[in-house]
Write a structure and sequence with these properties.
Length: 291
């Protein structure tokens, strides 16, 4: 049953005029007349008298009008409830992320978001670039912090340009220079992430046509820092990852400069209201706090 037509009937009765009801509803008079006729045909009863003075209820219409008003009221309540559900910021937001964002951005970001939207919960999936892209591809997460460029075929919001730096043991000869040439870093014993996630350093090295002298590989960013700290080698890493982790190591800019672009991927073409709101919130938070 098309309940919307009962709102048209209700408006016609309240206006006592097909013409005024049509104007208020944005319909034609013939359209309103057709809707009323369809209700009368459906109920097999005459409901309105059309006179020069306007439209008046018949006795049958008088008896049925309370039911018609209730149908129209329930229709409005249902639409309002549906709108609330579409726009309500609640439920669990699943986020895929890599170490630096999980450590340095997300705790403060989630705390601020929950202050505004206490009904929102979070589930974090923490891994390397390869893990995060897989979670975004298979629908395991609603949002994914990624590094551009990416093979993902979805909407991606660039958030932050994160410079790459040379990471050296304390007292290493290259630390005597204010800036480290990428060619010189590549010749040292190099500590690398796994191939699937070593995009950042590889891009900086390939820009100068160098292959690093890789002696150690690991999946864990902080393991790289720990190995550098122990003097096992050098590395090239994003600046964000090294915030608060500079003890026992030397950090230098690299030449030529290189960086990664951190972005937020939204895998679903129709994300939830909470997901959309957090994506917008995250972009504003990064603008205000990440510099």
């Amino acid at each position: 049953m098309d309940t919307k037509k009962y709102e048209v009937f209700e408006k016609t009765v309240d206006c006592a005029s097909l013409t005024r009801a049509a104007e208020e509803l944005g319909l034609t008079q013939s359209g309103v007349s057709h809707i009323i006729a369809s209700i009368e045909s459906e109920l097999q009863l005459p409901l309105l008298k059309r006179t020069r003075a306007g439209a008046r209820l018949t006795p049958e219409g008088e008896r049925l009008m309370p039911f018609i008003r209730e149908i129209a009221r329930q229709e409005r309540l249902m639409r309002a409830a549906a709108e609330d559900m579409r726009t309500q910021v609640s439920g669990t937001i699943r986020i895929g992320t890599f170490t630096s964002v999980a450590t340095h951005w997300l705790p403060a970001m989630m705390m601020r978001f929950q202050q505004e939207y206490p009904q929102a919960d979070f589930q974090l999936f923490n891994g390397d670039y390869h893990d995060v892209e897989n979670w975004a591809s298979d629908g395991s997460v609603d949002l994914a912090f990624i590094a551009l460029p990416t093979p993902l075929k979805c909407r991606c919001l660039p958030l932050y340009n994160d410079p790459l730096v040379a990471v050296l043991p304390k007292g290493h000869p290259l630390s005597a220079r204010p800036v480290c040439r990428v060619e010189d870093v590549a010749k040292e014993s190099f500590i690398s992430l796994l191939e699937a996630s070593n995009h950042d350093a590889r891009r900086a090295l390939e820009a100068v046509g160098m292959k690093p002298n890789i002696r150690f590989r690991t999946k864990d960013d902080y393991a790289v820092i720990a190995m550098v700290r122990q003097g096992l080698g050098v590395s090239i890493m994003p600046s964000l990852l090294l915030r608060g982790n500079g003890e026992g190591i030397e950090i230098r800019p690299i030449d030529p400069p290189a960086s990664r672009t951190i972005a937020l991927a939204i895998p679903s073409p129709d994300p939830s209201a909470a997901t959309r709101r957090f994506a917008d919130f995250a972009a504003e938070w990064v603008k205000e706090n990440a510099g």
